[in-house]
Design a protein that fits this description.
elongated; 408 residues; alpha+beta
């Protein structure tokens, strides 16, 4: 028979230590606050592409000439006083290269197209959304998708001097675009922040090579809504787990498991607050991951406790059953956590940015989850059954087993 470790001696000290750590987190919340990332605060989101233009278009004349580029065609809209109002449709099924587009547009009086890459596929062109699509003496560039040779790190280097900027790659390889996100305060002016970002991009890559795909602004009300929904999601997750545990085991087992989950979340938040790790949706995902992982480890222990309630009718007190159950599952709990930690440590060592933060939060959560499954959950179950009697334990366990047999 395996040696039984007296884990119950550590229940009270563990609860005291955890309470002190969580209290430090509460103090830190009011003193330092949470370093919310741009997912949870007002900010700018700009998507850019970086590529050399394939054509330069200018217009010198009395009419208003504008371009409307879609996936299948280029519409040239001509309007104004003293000119024939018309829309010339350049269908890419027939006009399939930049050179053919230039030949057709050069037929329009006053329009001049300077071709840089005439053989490029016309269906992969796009315009810079940050400038007007109305032609004038100023050059309007046509850009090619799928020709960029820069990387995400290049864009990050260009914006390195701007605090709080996050860069995410959208798409793969040369067809990639880059989403730039930066938080703004109430005193920041949106246009000034946008101009600052673009000026860094222009100086690093060249103004003619940078095309803005789209620009969005996240208001304070929207960011607060995201934060509120995240809290609701966390509460609902814990509530559903409590319902499952109450049905599967017993209400006091369920309460102990839920207290352990809340404990793990608060320990992680304490770490995030005092290290001032940026709290983004990725870090939130780490917290929710630990909630799921922790309940899995706790359920294994609870299942063993229920089994031992039947197999140990001679137990003098409930702590004896707890100690035996924890001893039976201790090696499994440790090995499961250690093997998972190896994978998470690899993520932490070999990645950067938000994934590195995700891995670090997981490391803290995994250690806390193993600890809480053994000590915190068991401590509250022990407190709930301090007046437990062996006869009740046998009767209750037999009733539970019979109920399980009926369900099966």
């Amino acid at each position: 028979m395996k040696k039984t470790v007296n884990f119950s001696k550590g229940f009270v000290p563990s609860v005291i230590i955890s309470s002190v750590i969580i209290l430090c987190g509460v103090v830190g919340f009011f003193v330092k606050g949470i370093n919310f990332g741009i997912d949870f605060k007002p900010g700018l989101i700009e998507e850019v592409r970086v590529a050399p233009p394939v054509a330069e278009i200018t217009y010198n004349g009395p009419a208003k000439v504008s371009l409307d580029l879609s996936a299948g065609q280029l519409d040239v809209v001509i309007s104004g006083v003293g000119v024939t109002n018309e829309t010339r449709v350049l269908n890419f099924a027939e006009i399939d290269t930049v050179q053919k587009i230039a030949d057709e547009m050069n037929k329009i009086e006053g329009v001049s197209v300077n071709v840089k890459n005439g053989s490029f596929d016309s269906t992969k062109l796009f315009l810079n959304s940050a400038v007007t699509n109305q032609l004038s003496n100023s050059i309007l560039y046509l850009y090619p998708a799928g020709t960029s040779d820069i990387t995400t790190d290049d864009v990050r280097d260009a914006l390195a001097s701007i605090t709080g900027v996050a860069v995410k790659q959208l798409g793969n390889g040369s067809d990639a675009s880059y989403q730039i996100r930066v938080g703004v305060s109430a005193t920041d002016k949106q246009n000034e922040v946008l101009d600052k970002i673009n000026s860094h991009l222009y100086s690093h890559f060249g103004k003619e090579k940078v095309a803005i795909v789209k620009t969005d602004f996240i208001g304070s009300s929207f960011s607060k809504s995201i934060a509120f929904k995240s809290v609701i999601m966390m509460v609902l997750t814990v509530l559903l787990i409590w319902i499952y545990a109450a049905i599967r085991f017993h209400w006091d087992f369920a309460l102990g498991s839920v207290i352990a989950l809340i404990h793990d979340a608060l320990i992680m938040m304490t770490f995030i607050i005092w290290t001032q790790m940026e709290f983004t949706s990725t870090v939130l995902a780490a917290v929710l991951t630990i909630v799921g992982y922790s309940i899995n480890a706790t359920v294994v222990i609870l299942d063993r406790i229920r089994y031992n309630l039947k197999m140990m009718p001679e137990a003098k007190d409930f702590n004896s059953i707890l100690n035996q159950s924890l001893s039976d599952t201790f090696i499994r709990s440790v090995l499961t956590t250690v093997t998972t930690l190896i994978a998470v440590l690899s993520l932490y060592i070999f990645t950067t940015g938000s994934i590195k933060d995700f891995a670090l939060a997981l490391i803290v959560g995994l250690i806390s989850g193993m600890y809480s499954s053994i000590f915190i959950s068991s401590a509250f179950i022990s407190a709930g059954r301090k007046n437990w009697k062996a006869e009740y334990g046998v009767h209750h366990s037999l009733k539970t087993v019979k109920a399980d047999e009926v369900n099966e």
